[in-house]
Amino acid sequence: MSEDVSLTLELTEEAMQKAVSHLGSELVKIRAGKANPQMLDGIMVDYYGATTPINQVANISVLDVRTLSIQPWEKNMLQPIERAIIASNIGINPQNDGVIIRMFLPPLTEERRKELVKRCQGEGENAKVAVRNIRRDAIEEIKKLQKNGLSEDAAKDAEGEVQGITDKYISLVDKYLQVKEKEIMAV
């Protein structure tokens, strides 16, 4: 197998790994009834005029299975953090006691669980589309290599390997979704 083909396969696998890793980080943000500090990832706070991630202006910890505690490093950041959480629309109302902000996660209703599962499946579908797009790009690259002198057999073998890598990452996406769905539907 030529160096160009192995480089293409390596880059393809690396890109697919990134797509699946992104899915994992997105699924963590979808709450499954348990408190998780990563639920607040992506929430930005106005910190003296600069938008800053919430975890860079406060300490976020889990008090118990259903409670998150947010303790800002500066007391005057309580209000901006509270506003940012409300504006983020994650479905949890923060409770500010003047020192820390507590977030109590209510138990999920059956309807809400089904909504969250649908949202997870949407994220999973996005990841599958990304993996398939990476496969398409890799196959196009192999066809270009074939035009530049790669034998037809080597090109077919390389395309088969790309499909094998694709199948591996699609099944990994399905596995992630199964685990998250089980976690969400557990009462």
Describe this structure in words.
The protein has 187 residues and is an alpha+beta fold. It folds into 2 domains: 3-29 and 109-185, Ribosome-recycling factor (Topoisomerase I, Chain A, domain 4, Orthogonal Bundle), CATH 1.10.132; 37-104, Gyrase A, domain 2 (2-Layer Sandwich), CATH 3.30.1360. The chain has 4 helices and 6 strands, in the order H-E-E-E-E-H-E-E-H-H. It has helices spanning 3-29, 78-88, 110-147, 152-185, and strands spanning 44-47, 50-53, 58-64, 67-72, 94-96, 101-104. Strands 3-4-6-5 form a 4-stranded antiparallel sheet, covered by helices on one side. Strands 1-2 form a two-stranded antiparallel ribbon. Strand 3 (58-64) and strand 4 (67-72) form a beta hairpin. Helix 3 (110-147) runs antiparallel to helix 4 (152-185). The mean pLDDT is 87.
List the helices and strands and how they pair.
Blueprint: H1 3-29, E1 44-47, E2 50-53, E3 58-64, E4 67-72, H2 78-88, E5 94-96, E6 101-104, H3 110-147, H4 152-185
Antiparallel strand pairs: 1-2, 3-4, 4-6, 5-6
Helix percent reads 55-70%
State the domain count: 2
Please give the radius of gyration in angstroms. Answer: 22 Å
Report the β-strand fraction as a percent range.
Answer: 5-15%
- Provide the residue-averaged pLDDT: 87
Class based on secondary structure composition and strand pairing: alpha+beta
Distance between the termini: 52 Å
Largest sheet: 4 strands, antiparallel
What is the helix tally? 4
How is the CATH topology of the largest domain named?
Topoisomerase I, Chain A, domain 4
Please write the CATH class name of the largest domain. Answer: Mainly Alpha
Gross morphology = elongated
H and E order:
HEEEEHEEHH
Low-confidence runs: none
CATH architecture of the largest domain: Orthogonal Bundle
What is the CATH superfamily label of the largest domain?
Answer: Ribosome-recycling factor
Report the count of strand segments. 6
Strand order of the largest sheet: 3-4-6-5
